[in-house]
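Question (not urgent): is this output format expected?
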Amino acid sequence: MTQAQNTPSVADLEAQEQRLVFRTFTHDDAWALGSLLVELGRERQAPIAIDIHRAGQQLFHAALPGSTPDNDAWIARKRRVVERYGSASYLVGSRFRAKGTTFEDSSRLDPDRYAAHGGSFPVTVEGVGVVGSVTVSGLPQIEDHRLVVEALERFLAG
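Got this back:
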């Protein structure tokens, strides 16, 4: 599979956001979703940090072996993109790339505070909208994104 075939389209990423919507999102949901991400990370021996925020409050954080403080900095930068745009950090970056530019060149936002790299996904509640984010950092950006999507799919199916 080529890199282009391996990269989801903007439409594919938008479809993920439309599909992965919660009925409600509680503190207990954040704990269960975060715990699922820890379990997936441990199974894969992934050197990741995991963060879940809702309404400006951190509800979950875990750092698995091999992760570093840099992962927390990446989490904060990716989460700010979700908070500002209301879309997955990977989708935001992909929209800029689809226009033939980059987030860094065209967003006019400080790259030390914002990163449109994969790994942060909006927590969207049916009838409410985006209320928070779930973020992973430590893998290549498409893998961070895919891990979050996989966990959301499993959680919402359960």
